[in-house]
Design a protein that fits this description.
alpha/beta, 3-stranded antiparallel beta sheet, 9 strands, 4-stranded parallel beta sheet, 465 residues
């Protein structure tokens, strides 16, 4: 029997020890260490064989894919990994990287990498879930898309569509798989029953609108929200068909234009009430729409009252009432926009206490069918530095959303507005004075870009800026 040399035995024991300590992270580190400036020579493959094989066996991929995955993990903090950038690391010619691109695409199909395409530029990134699995020396296993709940289905929609992957066929393939594996869900049944799809990618568009609503709380979807998912020529055709109402989703009454003061606005669309009810019955979307408007007072709650004014005031009130009627309001806004002016209405009602300022607003709302968002000025002001400014910004942010989502733009009412629109303090030094000035600046700025109806009331006009 041949005796093993003591030195060889020692090396064998050391190798065995290293093998026992090997993890996916260690293997990747060793591969990178050997790959840098290696030009992917035969010597590299010999030296890295053990580590490539270990990684390949653990992940059930080829050694070439193991190499690409290791290189990608080295750049895991970068969301725009280009295969060509590996050539600098490896000191290889770019042509050598073309073969690795095919291996990268196979890793994408397994969920180990994500592929992006922007203006003919292809790049990749390693998902955080995959990185976390490698850190724990575990192989990433994608979640099963089969037989999921409605909530999980919505979550998958977000993961697929928000992956920042501008490759139409990849989106469509993944969504097709998700829909095919969940035939019992109402969304999938509607898609199958109506044969939603075709060359206009209607199924993809429907999924995008559902994702915008359910994962981004966006019920007013513009072209900019979905155009990146399609080729430019297709975007133009889809826009035309949506505007003309000939798109499959419009004909099925699943999509409809958002309303701007009772009239359809061809720039923005959303899922119809019927679609919300039929596609996602478990989400109770129609009730949530109602609940979201808790700080609006419905125009239907205002009882009819006869108010008496002097002739001049009555003429002004009648004129304002006429302007705020839905059909007139839209026409006036269009003319203002064409003239380069702001589209919003900002009005001041002033008079002594008890003269009917607030009641006039209520009657205006009742007659024109507009709800009222009444602002409690006392609640806006806070003793905490910066909090009052945040409160007033939040008021206008919420109002903007109502203007976008309500069928008719509501009225934003500031009662006793002199509390927030007082005379500005020149050279203000005290924190309170600075806060007052800051609030006024915000309100004045918001008034300049107002796209709705703001009415302020006061009995102290001398105190106003």
């Amino acid at each position: 029997m041949k005796k093993e040399h003591p030195e060889n035995a020692c090396m064998s024991e050391e190798k065995q020890s290293v093998k026992q300590q090997l993890t996916m992270l260690v293997a990747i580190e060793k591969i990178i260490e050997l790959a840098v400036d290696s030009q992917l020579s035969n010597q590299f493959y010999v030296a890295a064989e053990e580590y490539l094989k270990y990684l390949a066996d653990r992940m059930e991929i080829t050694t070439e894919q193991a190499l690409v995955f290791a290189l990608a993990m080295e750049r895991s903090s970068d969301r725009c990994i280009r295969i060509s950038s590996f050539s600098d690391m490896l000191s290889c010619r770019n042509i050598r990287m073309v073969a690795l691109m095919g291996e990268a695409d196979k890793l994408v199909k397994r969920g180990f990498m994500i592929r992006h395409k922007n203006d003919d530029d292809i790049h990749y990134h390693v998902p955080l879930d995959v990185i976390e699995a490698v850190k724990e020396n575990e192989v990433f296993v994608p979640e099963s898309m089969e037989g999921v709940s409605e909530d999980k289905f919505i979550s998958f929609l977000g993961k697929i569509l928000d992956a920042d992957n501008n490759e139409t066929f990849e989106y469509d393939d993944k969504l097709e798989e998700l829909i095919a594996r969940n035939p019992s869900l109402p969304f999938c049944q509607v898609v199958k029953r109506n044969e939603i799809g075709g060359p206009m990618y209607a199924r993809l568009l429907l999924c995008i609108f559902a994702n915008r609503l359910l994962n981004h709380d966006d019920d007013m979807v513009g072209t900019h929200d979905w155009e990146d998912y399609f080729e430019n020529s297709l975007v133009r055709r889809i826009c035309r068909d949506l505007r003309e109402g000939t798109h499959q989703l419009c004909e099925l009454k699943l999509l409809e234009p958002c309303k701007n003061d009772g009239l359809g606005d061809g720039r923005f669309f959303h899922l119809s009430d019927m679609a919300k009810r039929e596609l996602f019955p478990g989400q109770d979307l129609l009730s949530k729409q109602t609940e979201a408007r808790t700080d609006l007072t419905s125009h239907t709650t205002f009882a009819a009252k006869r108010l008496f004014y002097n002739p001049k005031t009555e003429s002004q009130i009648n004129q304002l009432t006429s302007l705020l009627m839905p059909e007139q309001f839209v026409a006036i806004q269009s003319r203002l926009e064409e003239s380069g002016m702001r589209k919003g209405f900002a009005c001041l009602f002033y008079g002594a206490p008890g003269t009917g300022k607030t009641e006039t607003v209520n009657q205006l709302a009742r007659i024109t069918g507009r709800d009222v968002m009444m602002i409690n000025v006392a609640k806006i002001k806070s003793c905490w530095v910066g909090e009052s400014e945040k409160n007033i910004k939040d008021v206008f942010d919420r109002y903007r959303k109502y203007v976008e989502k309500c069928e008719l733009a509501p009225i934003l009412l500031f009662n006793e507005a002199d509390a927030v629109l007082g005379i500005r303090q020149e050279g203000a030094q005290r924190a309170v004075d600075k806060m007052e000035n800051s609030i006024q600046n915000i309100i004045l700025q918001e008034m300049e870009q107002l796209n709705g109806i703001m009415i302020a009331t006061t009995n102290l006009t001398k105190n106003l800026d």
